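Feature request disguised as a bug: please show the residue count (389) next to fructose-bisphosphatase in the output. Example input:
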Amino acid sequence: HEADAYRTDLMTITRYVLNEQSRNPEARGDLTILLSHIVLGCKFVASAVNKAGLAKLIGLAGETNVQASVPGNTCHLSQFLVSEIEIGEEQKKLDVLSNEVFVKALVSSGRTCVLVSEEDEEATFVDPALRGKYCVCFDPLDGSSNIDCGVSIGTIFGIYMIKDKENVTLEDVLQPGKNMVAAGYCMYGSSCTLVLSTGNGVNGFTLDPSLGEFILTHPDIKIPKKGKIYSVNEGNAKNWDEPTAKFVEKCKFPKDGSSPKSLRYIGSMVADVHRTLLYGGVFLYPADKKSPNGKLRYTLSLLSASHFAYGTSNFILINNSEFTKSWNYSVLYEVFPMSFLMEQAGGQSFTGKERALDLVPTKIHERSPIFLGSFEDVEEIKGLYAAQA
Ligand code: AHG
Ligand code: MN
Ligand code: MN
Ligand code: MN
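Example output, currently without the count:
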């Protein structure tokens, strides 16, 4: 059929969000505008991520690119591309650059009043003249340990509405995840995929590079009720708590005659969650015996060095720098958006104690253990925790 060869009726993400907006007579298009600014940020990061390998190829990463930065100098195309992702003469780490792009895109949308980013120790309060009613919590580039080897990474975001934009405080940001009005992620993988929920199911859009548009490719995503995959960093097994150890044992040696589950772990939350959403199964980052609230993790506070990428499991101690303790994963910009999407797709998300979206964070960079995925698989984990209690 010739009509099938080319799709001619393109459902772009903007068209989709506008359609959603028109279902709500009170909507004034603010969320549509905000989302289009997030989409712009994602396109920028997608393009920068694609160039990251080129920077390595010509050995310029972290060095000063003298040739390309001298005005009027002709330079090789790849040098030009590298210079484009440089600020001043030094090349910025991609996660820092991505953060700057998102902060600027969100502020300039005129629809936000407060921003919380993984890369910024403090929340950003938007200038009153540019204020709108939304709060956006985001991880501009998650999975940064995977950048240098070309493995999938992503951006995660969650959006809240703030009651009074004129008098916004940190308290307004510390809401349970179930109050989110929208959440999503963009995965920079073999293709660039943006998965979004505005509270009415989950839809996936793939960037068509020739059009520069995200096109609806995965309408109404529903996660399989039960999956054949479990996803966890098994290197931490020696410190797992009882319920986690029991669950993983059951995945490998099922006693009910079913086949063992397969293990898949990329180490990029966005990619691991995306696979879980499409194929089913469960993704877990449990608490452990040593750290009952999740993995102990250090974050450089008072960002003095723009070249410092937050470590995932390893970190470098820089003399005279200040470090604060925290846990994997961040509640506001990792646990909540992913849990929102999971529930919207018919799965569930659990912290080991409660429904993840019921959690009320007490600080903006609060962390929590997480178990999310297919409804029945998470149900099994909940059973193991209940049995222990
Ligand atoms: P980030 O790159 O934003 O600092 O976060 C990395 C996170 C997440 O993407 C990934 O799933 C996790 O760290 C991996 O942790 P382990 O290396 O401990 O498995
Ligand atoms: Mn992260
Ligand atoms: Mn990050
Ligand atoms: Mn980082």
